[in-house]
Amino acid sequence: MHMHIESRTMKEGAMQWVQAVPADFNGVPPQPRSGHTAVRVGRSMVVVFGGLVDKKFLSDIVVFDTENNIWFKPECTGNESDGQVGPCPRAFHVAVAIDCHMFIFSGRFGRKRLGDFWMLDTDIWQWTELSGYGDLPPPRDFAAGAAVGNRKIVMHGGWDGTKWLSDVYILDTMSLEWTQLPITGSSPPPRCGHTATMVEKRLLIFGGRGGGGPIMGDLWALKGLFEEENESPAWTQLKLPGQAPAARCGHTITYGGTQLLVFGGHGTAGWLTRYDIYYNDCIILDRASVQWKRLAVSNEPPPARAYHSMTRIGSRFLLFGGYDGKSTFGDIWWLVPEDDPMAKRALLSPRSRLSAVESTVQTQDSASVDVKETKQEHFTPLGEMRMRLGLSTMAASTAELNIVDESSDTELLALASTLVSRDGDKTTERSILVKALRDYWNNSTAVSIRLCELGPLLRDYHRLICQLQGHSLLEPVGFHHESSNSEMQMHRFYHLKNANQLRMSDIPDLLNEYKQLLYLSSVTSSSEPEQGFDLGLL
User: Model's pTM, two decimal places?
Assistant: First the structure.
């Protein structure tokens, strides 16, 4: 990809997540989606194309002008078929930019894998279909591609509907000819949903889902892509020291100076049964020290996700969209250095920060995102674990949430009593017990939360939301934005009836939202006379 890269790199412990607000942009950002692409074209444009939301495949183009901070939809011309200008709707395709041109290949529409080939000239916003030029690679989705210099594109792997692929194709953008690269020696196992990144003269691929379905975390380098190097194409597996990322697919790798930033993705975990887990960690591959490192971030990250996009703009990274197994995201986040003026916002406006998934559409896209297309069980592995340990496992009900005052939540009070008794305090005053437990949770990390705490924690989460709605600090759950026809889920876990419906990967996000609710509650308590919880607020 031909793009401007600043010399500044990510400094360890000096990055911060900031959720974008409308004032950051002019124009209308893209609607929620996953499986889309967002590529840098030239020095001042990020071009978002395609994706999937609520089982609907998209074909729109939305552009972010980085110099003027404006989103816009260009009026594209070109090849037209059945009223469609440009490529048909798709997701999980390959998009690579060379100069002012964005090339599109492969992807999925419904259950069909695509093999057509398109080019968008962003100078005049004109689509041209190039499928008739020579022999194209076989149709596929979830492949990975990258620019090789300023003339060629390399594509690796994917899924053709029956098997995982490991082939490598080179496109010459001048002659528009595709060539399968002959490779000798060992090769990476076939895979899809991985990333491909050019670093100097090598193509690096990482992760993906492999043959038979396992998620992989291996790193490989391919040489021999530049004719002037006079090297025979060959793969080498790289086993680097440091804190390597967990195995994953659907992640992103973004160039940042001398470092590569890995974010998000989808994997599996569990010891009773295997279940999906989504990531929101940041790991860097430091080319200077040739090792993996955890990027220390000074605040809570966005909700975990996969099949999102992450684009570098100067010293900032722009995260958009994605999917977490339940919801398709439309939120936009910045990852910025701590000395960036935008970083100061992370300490302000708790109301806007509370809705980390404000621009989220509840969907059933899992059948489209996951190659295996499996159905979810009624109980989560976490619920099964609670049942085996003899903890409360009330079945999920379609009835409305039964939210009671904290003074009547016997399980919460019993847990709080255990906590304060460890500190030698024998108090039975309920308000003191509740405060002690909330302070404890406010200072806890996700890994320190015990299974027996999840039920009381989730109920107190529900309770705080209702109290804050009564003070008009929060919109009612299920609030419909006037600018959207989709219901925007304001509180991600409010719809859960009990802790059995939580997944292990939900706990960090639940605790993060709970802490933000506590902050808002403390602001309310300090600015207004103390009031009891009023069930009439429901």
Answer: 0.67
